Amino acid sequence: MTDTTGGPAQLRARLAATGYLADDGLATACHLALALHRPIFCEGAPGAGKTSLATALAEALDAPLIRLQCYEGIDAAQALYDWDFPRQLLHLRAGHDDTDLYDERFLVTRPLLRALRTSPAVLLIDEIDRADDEFEAFLLELLSEYTVTIPELGTVRAVAPPAVVLTSNRTREVHDALKRRCLYHWFDHPDFARELAIVRRRRPDVSEQLARQVTAAVRRIRGADLIKPPGVAETIDWAEALAVLGAEALETDSGVATLGTVVKYHEDLEPARAALREELGA
Ligand SMILES: Nc1ncnc2c1ncn2[C@@H]1O[C@H](COP(=O)(O)OP(=O)(O)O)[C@@H](O)[C@H]1O
Ligand SMILES: [Mg+2]
């Protein structure tokens, strides 16, 4: 898909209009990915805004979002297409012969095939690190040619390649070959100003003061040595939880009581509490 949005600045503005705040680096990477018809490979910690980039991009480009969630053991039958075996059997039992068993009617279209047949489209291949090597190799081929051959039906070629967003939470390294095919973008935690802006944007009901304090406290907690440092998603959740409790400002007691929105490992709780107290000078 061609980026008809102008340049990085315009794309950034369009993403912002959907509620997604990208920095210059990300806006440029997205713009280039679209202009060069290359997938964008988004890697970074969970909650850093990778999946929601695809959603925002689809909205910004006014294109449908087609999502493939990867998991251990996923294969072409789940990702590309499959045949509806029970319906084929019924067809045979109804007395039809087997000449049209592999007709379009019996084809079950999965996200990757749907993405080839839809234009324009944004294809999200989410959490590729959960899939195995074979599936990666299969994807690499598909993303090089945007063509697949269904033996019984023939070759399907994308009218126009979809915009592709690949994400990885980096639970393992994805192969260089696949990365080489893509433009790479590392998702770091945003700086203070952008994280605050994201919280304000996603939870307009949270007071400015509370949003500021929560954002600052999360940054402090990230500095502690945690098993799972909180992402933007946790900052948003924490601010919302406190707002729901009627807080206008972050205080030690309510802060500690709501840390379950921020910290998801028992071992992280004590260091997080300590960081919060330090932040509040308590
Ligand atoms: N740059 C951003 N602009 C707006 N919201 C963001 C941004 N980054 C993260 N978020 C919000 O944080 C939450 C987690 O983001 P998500 O895309 O699911 O993270 P990931 O896929 O990296 O684990 C979502 O609610 C998302 O809306
Ligand atoms: Mg995600």
From TrEMBL:
This is MoxR family ATPase. InterPro entries: AAA+_ATPase, ATPase_dyneun-rel_AAA, CbbQ/NirQ/NorQ/GpvN, P-loop_NTPase. Residues 36-202 form the AAA+ ATPase domain. It comes from Streptomyces coryli. It comes from the Bacteria. One of its GO terms (molecular function) is ATP hydrolysis activity. It holds the Pfam family AAA_5.
